[in-house]
Q: What sequence folds into this?
């Protein structure tokens, strides 16, 4: 059973398009995250939701909009894609109220904007 | 600002030799510290964590880490490296409601 699953695995699209990445976790965690990993492998937090409520919203363009229909799902919608959005996007989940709970990551979505 | 540093971009070690991947943190209070490993085309996988108690923490795949409060370090260690340990390793601190990651260290274990 896949604990944190995200789709699609690969996403190739042209500048200006709108795309979505979906994420689901079956671990019963209360908090979900989106991270961006750039070409140098740096990991940067983008958003965090706890029980469907936004708790972290780092400085990202407002073209990026997370949506959490329930606490098991956190989707990422990106409008007007730009070349600089090309990266690997990781979804993760944890029991954030318990700081000793590690993150569980999905396998990533590699976004390529041409 | 809270931060995690990994001073080495790359660590090379021969198979069978001990390995150390370094991590230092700058987080106020008592952070929770973690190590993750990333294999190619995969998400990060949890290796071990320090919350409180014994400064030497044991984790998955024979890895361990030593917490040193005075040096604000949390170095990852393994007594005998395997070629299959070759991967990207991330140190992280949980503080407030967020995980802060280091920049990663690429470990290459040479046969």
A:
């Amino acid at each position: 059973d896949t604990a944190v699953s995200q789709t699609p695995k690969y996403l190739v699209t042209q500048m200006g398009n709108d795309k979505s990445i979906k994420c689901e976790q079956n671990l019963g965690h209360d908090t979900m995250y989106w991270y961006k990993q750039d070409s140098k492998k740096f990991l940067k937090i983008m958003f965090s939701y706890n029980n469907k409520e936004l708790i972290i919203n780092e400085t990202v363009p407002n073209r990026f909009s997370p949506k959490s229909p329930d606490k098991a799902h956190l989707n990422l919608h990106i409008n007007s894609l730009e070349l600089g959005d090309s990266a690997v996007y990781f979804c993760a989940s944890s029991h954030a109220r318990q700081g000793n709970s590690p993150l569980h990551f999905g396998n990533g979505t590699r976004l390529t904007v041409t | 600002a809270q931060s995690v540093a990994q001073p080495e971009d790359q660590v090379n070690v021969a198979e069978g030799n001990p390995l150390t991947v370094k991590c230092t943190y700058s987080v106020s209070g008592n952070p929770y510290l973690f190590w993750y490993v990333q294999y190619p085309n995969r998400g990060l996988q949890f290796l071990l964590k320090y919350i409180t108690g014994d400064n030497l923490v044991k984790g998955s795949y024979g890895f361990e880490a030593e917490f040193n409060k005075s040096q604000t370090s949390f170095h990852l260690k393994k007594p005998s490296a395997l070629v299959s340990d070759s991967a990207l390793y991330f140190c992280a601190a949980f503080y407030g409601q967020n995980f802060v990651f280091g920049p990663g260290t690429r470990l290459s274990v040479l046969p």
Notes: The CA atoms of residues 83 and 109 of chain B lie 5 Å apart. Chain B touches chain A at residues 32, 34, 36, 38, 41-46, 49, 51, 88, 90, 92, 94, 97-99, 101, 103-104 (CB under 8 Å). The radius of gyration of chain B is 13 Å. The first strand of chain B starts at residue 3 and ends at 5.
